[in-house]
Fold this sequence. Notes:
Elements: E1 23-25, H1 27-30, E2 35-37, E3 52-55, E4 60-62, E5 67-76, E6 86-94, H2 96-101, E7 109-113, E8 124-125, E9 130-133, E10 148-153, E11 168-170, E12 174-177, E13 182-188, E14 192-195, E15 207-210, E16 218-222, E17 227-230, E18 244-247, E19 250-256, E20 266-269, E21 272-276, E22 279-281, E23 283-286, E24 288-289, E25 296-299, E26 310-317
Parallel strand pairs: 1-11, 12-15
Antiparallel strand pairs: 2-3, 2-24, 3-10, 4-9, 5-6, 5-8, 6-7, 7-10, 13-14, 13-26, 14-25, 16-17, 16-23, 17-20, 18-19, 19-20, 21-22, 21-26, 23-25
Amino acid sequence: MTGTPPNEADGDAADGDPPEATVSLSAAVVGRYEKFSRVNSPYSAHDRGRAVDLYPRDGVGRSPVAGTVRDVRTVGCPDRPYAADEDHLIVVDLADGWCARADASPGTVARILHVVPEVSPGDRVAAGDALGPTTRSGFFGQWVDDHVHLGFRPPDANPRRASGSLPVAVDVPVEPVAWDGTGAVVERGPTHVVLDGPRRSDPGPPFAALASDEGVPLDGGVTHYAGGGTFEADEGASAPEGTTLSLFGTEIGTVRTDGADARAPGVDWGSVDVRANGERVTGLSLFAARGDRFGVKVVCPNRTFEIGESVTLDVVPSDDPIRLGVG
């Protein structure tokens, strides 16, 4: 799993329906990070693109926003042997200038998680400032890299809650890269491997992502999280609501735009399994990432693949697809 707990700091009632205003992150904000995703998470904070995970290159949790630190809190985590037993919430009152550039209302508040805070209430921070080191949170699945979680709350809303967060748009074009699902293992961890594909050979936008068969760049956990999404494509590749998307020749889901940013709509995954060399694995973890080789993890806690081993992925219909929750 990745993301943040839905209501980590208190037990207040939900704040009602989320506002429709969208906070827009520019290339200058996102370009400080190695990769990003809006919906690669089972947690409600990411539901329908209402948060973004930003993956730094160096283990430093740099601020994606400018403003004044309002609050710093430590919260408990699920007990995971591979992770810390506590996480941290940093609340920032956004500067008016930052809000104006992001199309956010004055008084909007940022919520930042998964960083061990080296800042205190009252500190002023600029975009790019170090807030502290990232932490391996117990809210992560074991295959998830350390990252900065960023969400926004409207003025006068409870900043400690995730439910009711504002939609987040990332105004960065993402190149969709086709792939046949074959490659050799170049990285392995306890619960995942990375293959040497997909690759892109021509210069393009800084970020790229795995494309559906229709040429739409994909975001999320395919299909181990119930819903996923798409990125805004570099050449305008888009999928209207109701469009069926396929991967490796099999239908994987349907585009929906209700409650999602129209530039990067969501996807309701269908009932399918991902297989590696003919055996079912948990799924594919997708992001927009930099570089020629990027951004696809094969999540396979019950399989072992060796470095250099050839792997072929496919997708097949399933009567019992894997769906991971937050427990």
